[in-house]
Amino acid sequence: MRDFSNSKRAFAEADKYMPGGVNSPVRAFKNVGGDPLFIAKGKGAYIEDIDHNKYIDYVLSWGPLILGHADDKVVADLQDATTRGTSYGAPTELETELAEKIQAIVPSLEEMRMVSSGTEATMSAIRLARGVTKRDKIVKFIGNYHGHSDSLLVDAGSGMATFDINTSPGVPNALAYDTLTVAYNDVEGVKSLFKEHGKEIACVIVEPIAGNMGVIPGTQEFLQTLRDETTKSGSLLIFDEVMSGFRAAYHGAQSLYHIKPDLTTLGKVVGGGLPVGVFGGRRDLMENITPAGKIYHAGTLSGNPLAMTGGLSTLNQLSEDLYTKMTANTKRLMAGIKQAADDHGVPMTVHSVGTMWSYFFNAGPVNNFDDVKASDTAYFAKFFKQLLQQGIYTAPSQFETNFMSSKHTDVEIDKTIQAFNNAFDAVQKQG
Ligand SMILES: *Cc1c(COP(=O)(O)O)cnc(C)c1O
After folding, report:
1. Which of 216, 242, 265, 269 to mutate to test the pocket of ligand 1 (most atoms within 8 A of CB)?
2. What is the pLDDT of residues 183-200, one digit of tens each?
3. Any idea what DSSP says for residue 218?
4. Do both 100 and 126 map to the same domain?
5. 119 lines ligand 1 (CB under 6 A)
6. 383 and 301, same structural domain?
7. Which residues contact 24 (CB under 8 A, 6 or more apart)?
8. What are the residue numbers of the active site?
9. What is the pLDDT of residues 162-185, one digit of tens each?
10. Which residues pair with 409 in a beta bridge?
11. Other C-beta atoms within 10 Å of 227: how many?
């Protein structure tokens, strides 16, 4: 058995100063029962906790670290950048360089604004949509997560799903009232909503490949319906690609479906482990943002030079070839995990798109939040603990996604498949 005593002590200490002992809820391991691991360092595909236990890491900071931990080039570029100062609050060429790079990869971002988190990106995109359409209502999908701003904390995925909360106390009723929700992949539900409310809807915001209730790809018909209905009713379509961007595919989910949203939000990988979010899209829309237009947006650390460097250094190392390789690795891992479940007679559904993957203790099919909720979360909790014992660090919730990095090779994948087999054996032994 691995010894977690230093992490246990560190958590008790943290709990004196921070609610639940953490700065973001799912980190707390609360719904898998147990204390979170405190991390000392990471390199490549591996992390090490403060008790010197080593793990193959598939959380990767919840997505950003597509090049794994402490990539040599990213670290060197950051070290170099810090010698010139950490922030100026004035323009730098780095911002233009990153914007140019992003646009080359995701061309629908004709103009964009850098922010410091995915939450800021989606919040600002919603404000822009409401401002230009002069409408208040927005549509989101049950189990999709778009950060923690008021209008978007309704029927949300991620921590909200993990802790079974519909909306948060503190969200004004008026805002929740203007957020209309529909089941994910529900084409008829979308059509009837637009029939009734079409002319009041400012925008639809959607994760084209949902990643905050595990990985659930949107169907082509579903996403095309969103494109058609928003166009017909004069509302905007926002693809929230904070997770799927540079993850589902090099050019994002939008390239897989050949659907062009009006606005896109990015985060996670775009900062390469530093705090960056982006919202952008049609030039005619973006030109409404201050100071070009009147819809307000600002940020003291927006476009921060260190954050821009983290993003640039990461994106500059990505390529189509790298995604082909990572996607193949992810598929091989999925096949191995599914085989392990089958061999142990455990019902399981595995989903992956590009470098995003998840496993549900559920015979499937898993197409929406109700399906995910039918998964065996008690089994998940037991299994998760065994994986930790086996040296595999995955997301501590059935409602979260795991990731692949460029540093995970055949060696790590084979070890992981073996670890899943061992974990099934161990759970079965417990009875
Ligand atoms: C993570 C995430 C966000 C929120 O980003 P933060 O940087 O955590 O604020 C928004 N949308 C999606 C799809 C996400 O996965």
Report:
1. 242
2. 999 999 999 999 999 999
3. P
4. yes
5. yes
6. no
7. 159
8. 145, 240, 268
9. 766 677 889 888 888 999 999 999
10. none
11. 17
